[in-house]
Design a protein that fits this description.
38% of the residues lie in helices and 13% in strands. By secondary structure, the protein is of the alpha+beta class.
């Protein structure tokens, strides 16, 4: 997530517009009747790294930090339609779950184990869990924590994580 935000801020560094999203900012959009403020729209665009179609957009987003120069400590649930162009924008910052398991287990075991903890694996089972069990638990985690406007995750669904995620920073798509 930080990489996306950092890239966004660098790309817009020389532009006149400022994205002063207040700390402790919250945005809730559960139906198309909600009118979004310019700050809300900028906040959503920064998080997604693209501008979604506002007609089908639903979300619950919270920023709870005290920094004005960058954003940290965000959580949210988002449902939106991604066009092919939108997907190409964010695709390079995501890794498919099966590839994440393979690479992160070998590369950074501490962050990998933190991910296992997030999806409900007990510490004593870290070395015993299979890749299929991790995918199933991730799918269960998504379904248990998703909001009702988000689609259910199936075993055949493609699950993506943000590249370079750590125990403090997970995006699950």
């Amino acid at each position: 997530m930080w990489n996306l935000i950092h890239q966004y801020l660098l790309c817009n560094k020389n532009k006149q517009e400022k994205s002063n999203i207040p700390a402790s900012h919250s945005t809730v959009v559960l139906d198309s009747e909600v009118k979004l403020s310019p700050e809300d729209k900028k906040f959503i665009e920064i998080i997604l790294n693209f501008t979604p179609k506002w007609s089908n957009f639903k979300c619950e987003l919270t920023r709870y930090d005290r920094y004005s120069e960058y954003m940290e400590n965000m959580s949210g649930f988002i449902y939106c339609e991604a066009t092919i162009e939108n997907w190409k924008t964010i695709e390079n910052d995501l890794i498919e779950l099966t590839l994440y398991i393979e690479s992160e287990r070998a590369k950074n075991i501490e962050d990998f184990n933190a991910f296992l903890q997030v999806i409900g694996v007990q510490e004593e089972d870290y070395s015993l869990i299979t890749d299929i069990d991790i995918v199933k638990r991730t799918s269960d985690y998504i379904n248990d924590t998703k909001h009702e406007y988000q689609s259910r995750c199936q075993m055949f669904s493609k699950i993506y994580l943000n590249m370079g995620c750590s125990h403090n920073d997970y995006n699950i798509v």
